[in-house]
Design a protein that fits this description.
- The chain is of the alpha/beta class.
- Helices cover 34% and strands 22% of the residues.
- The protein contains 22 helices and 28 strands.
- The strands form 4 sheets. Strands 22-23-24-21-25-26-27-28 form an 8-stranded mixed β-sheet, covered by helices on one side. Strands 1, 2, 3, 4, 5, 12 and 13 form a 7-stranded mixed β-sheet that branches. Strands 14-17-16-15-18-19-20 form a 7-stranded mixed β-sheet, sandwiched between helices.
- Strand 15, helix 14 and strand 16 form a beta-alpha-beta unit.
- Helix 20 crosses helix 22.
Length: 701
């Protein structure tokens, strides 16, 4: 992978397999009859919705792919989240770390089982020379166990019960003893009970013992434990309810593992117990600004963040307060991955297995950022294509068109941020090579045009760099997020002599084209009401972040503004907008907007964009009133006409114009007559969305 500005590149020495989290997906969980029926009904409803939206033949094809996927259809996801190694490169904004530092790394999908990983600064912690990197590879797991103890808020001399003596529970036993606590261990595995006793537990009991509760209460002289920590992973709610039974009055039960929560209220109520959740490694987890952006929490307000928990666990390793050597069942090379996981599935004495990632002596890196998959060369008459950011949308809607239009396009390369996603996408769509460095594509003379499908905040930068590299550009909407970005793009475009297209595909739908033909014949102003039942997106999603996604009006609303411009065939004269007067977790003001647009030819359009509707109705409906006639465009499936003299058009499948869009882009690149938007039209749509947002937001963009 490429080392970003606030990341470090680490050559991994050892990577720990989480015996609970990672093996859970490999286990077949038998469902009860009601659960099986409920699961089937959910799938049936999904298929019904898919038929309605995409048509029967597409649905059948998609279902068949799910039931019997080809190698290209299988999505590979990196696994692993706890490893240790040596820094071999640092980002330009990284401080306090240097090449050669030994570090522990954390993060699901980040600190993966791999030879080299790129880790954000808040997810690495230095490891002193006295700590073996094998032991340091346990750091993430140690943080999870540690945060559970912190959530219990126990004090020196108190008694706790640890239920579930897997990897997490056995580490927690040692940390609890090091903190001066009395520890009772509970599990169904006799070997792990013995190991817990060896590692310091004051008493251990089998969870299947009918006298478990009396035994625990007896150990505490009938007082009950101060806290019960549930590290087990099970669908059963028994561990939680047993915790309620053995706790003293006003005690605490902490759910660390993924357990059932069908709780016995009476047990909680009579003792006034607290039930607490423990979120993974601690404060900062699931907060992108902390984990990815590298923004730390002030120590005066958040004493124990993820990173500070990591450092504390390493300190405990250094001072021999925790011994993980006894937990290591086996160390295997990476290419014995299947064997390693099978050991954890089959051997009930196997607590932890490590991968030896073959780091050896760490040296300054000269990494390869390209994986060649097949020979590639210039094909006369075809446009060489490079894709930067082949995410879900590009993979679903654009790349299939590139493959289908093989007489027009030659897919040279795909670049994604992570190696696994780059390789998977490139193999699936039969690109010549995969890369984690988009600059390789810009340097490739065989590539005539690039398709940009990254997150929105990167669009402007990548467009400018691509134009400067003499590449034509197709950018999935939006073009930019800010006025200054749009100005920069315009300036570079004028000098480049290359073309820009933006993914406003709806204007290329056959139904949109037909509606435009009818309007043009009428030669009169139109009145249009465009309703978008967009659906709810939580404010935590990147699309809602103004600096990353731009918000939904800029990120998606540009689509609808463009279609209105296309249908009216006129320039915008004025724009007025309003949003709902509330902004909370359930109703986001900027996601519920009414926009009125007046055009120079007299046309009047309204756009109603809402996230508070229901998925039971189609997403989009366009009602067009013109010269005593009416047209209704329903979700790009049907165009119903009244008073136009035209027949209704009903498509077999939804067609939002992706195929024709890519055909027209090919003409644009080749300098042939085409229907692509002019740069002035693209800029006009983009600035209109900026203006709409200004109408209901504080401050200027």
């Amino acid at each position: 992978p490429i080392c970003q500005a606030r990341e470090v590149l680490v050559r991994v020495a050892y990577s720990l397999i989480s015996s609970g989290t990672e093996t859970q997906t490999l286990k077949t969980q038998k469902k009860s009859l009601p659960e099986s029926v409920a699961d089937t009904l959910i799938k049936v409803k999904k298929v019904q919705a898919m038929i309605k939206a995409q048509g029967l033949s597409t649905t059948i094809e998609n279902v068949q792919k799910r039931l019997n996927p080809s190698e290209e259809d299988i999505v590979l996801i990196p696994t692993g989240y706890s490893n240790a190694g040596t820094i071999v490169a640092i980002g330009e904004e990284v401080t306090g770390l240097k090449v050669g530092d030994r570090v522990a790394c954390a993060g699901s999908g980040i600190a993966t089982h791999a030879e080299v990983v790129s880790i954000p600064v808040n997810l690495v912690a230095k490891v002193p020379a006295s700590v073996d990197l094998k032991a340091a590879a346990f750091t993430t797991v140690g943080c999870i166990a540690m945060h559970g103890l912190r959530r219990a808020e126990v004090d020196f001399g108190e008694t706790i019960m640890i239920s579930g003596l897997g990897l997490l529970g056995l580490v927690a036993v040692q940390m609890a003893k090091a903190s001066g606590l009395q520890v009772i261990g509970v599990d169904i595995n006799p070997y792990r009970l013995e190991l817990a006793k060896k590692l310091g537990a004051d008493a251990v009991f089998n969870a299947t013992d009918k006298d478990l509760v009396p035994s625990v209460l007896g150990f505490t002289e009938q007082m009950g434990v101060d806290a019960a920590l549930i590290y087990a992973g099970t669908q059963s709610s028994q561990p939680i309810n047993t915790g309620f039974q053995v706790c003293r009055r006003k005690g605490r039960v902490v759910a660390v593992g993924n357990v059932g929560l069908d709780i016995n209220r009476d047990l909680m109520y009579m003792k006034e117990l607290d039930l607490l959740m423990s979120t993974s490694y601690g404060p900062g987890r699931y907060d992108d600004s902390y984990e990815i952006g590298g923004q730390d929490y002030p120590i005066g307000y958040v004493r124990w963040t993820e990173n500070r928990n990591m450092s504390e666990f390493i300190r405990m390793l250094e001072h021999k307060m925790v011994d993980v050597e006894q937990l290591i069942h086996q160390v295997l090379p990476l290419n014995d991955g299947a064997k390693a996981f099978q050991i954890l599935l089959d051997d009930n004495k196997a607590v932890a297995v490590l991968f030896d990632c073959g780091a050896g002596e760490a040296k300054p890196e000269q990494e390869q950022h390209v994986m060649q998959l097949k020979p590639t060369s210039v094909v006369k008459g075809r446009i060489g294509i490079g894709v930067i950011g082949a995410g879900g949308f590009i993979s679903k809607s654009i790349l299939p068109q590139i493959v289908e239009l093989k007489e027009k396009y030659n897919l040279i390369a795909i670049s994604n941020r992570t190696p696994a996603s780059a390789k998977t996408s490139a193999k699936k769509f039969k690109a010549g090579y995969a890369s984690t460095d988009y600059r390789k594509l810009l340097q490739d003379d065989r590539i005539d045009a690039v398709i940009i499908g990254t997150r929105h905040n990167l669009h402007a930068k990548l467009i400018c760099e691509s134009l400067e590299a003499a590449k034509h550009v197709f950018c999935e909407k939006p073009l930019a997020l800010f006025d200054h970005e749009l100005d920069a793009i315009t300036e570079v475009w004028k000098k480049s002599g290359k073309s820009i297209a933006v993914g406003f595909n709806r204007r290329y739908s056959p139904l949109s084209v037909k509606a435009r033909e009818i309007i043009k014949k009428a030669n009169a102003p139109v009145v249009i009401h465009y309703r978008v039942n967009a659906g709810y997106l939580p404010p935590t999603m990147w699309v809602q972040d103004r600096k990353i996604g731009g918000g939904r009006m800029i990120g998606e609303g540009c689509h609808f503004i463009d279609l209105l411009n296309y249908l009216t065939g006129s320039e915008i004269e004025s724009v007025h907008s309003a949003s709902v007067p509330m902004d909370n977790d359930k109703i986001i003001a900027n996601d519920n907007v009414s926009v009125t647009i007046k055009y120079k030819n007299g046309s009047l359009c309204t756009l109603l964009y809402t996230s508070v509707g229901c998925s039971g109705i189609p997403k989009e409906r366009v009602e067009i009133f013109c010269n005593k006639s009416v047209m209704v465009l329903d979700d790009f499936n049907a165009l119903n006409c009244w008073g136009t003299g035209e027949k209704n058009l009903i498509l077999k499948e939804m067609d939002k114009g992706f195929s024709r869009e890519m055909k027209e882009f090919a003409k644009l690149v080749k300098g042939e007559q085409n229907l692509c938007m002019s740069m002035d039209e693209i800029i006009n749509v983009t600035r209109t969305t900026f203006q709409i947002e200004k109408d209901f937001s504080d401050g200027d963009r």
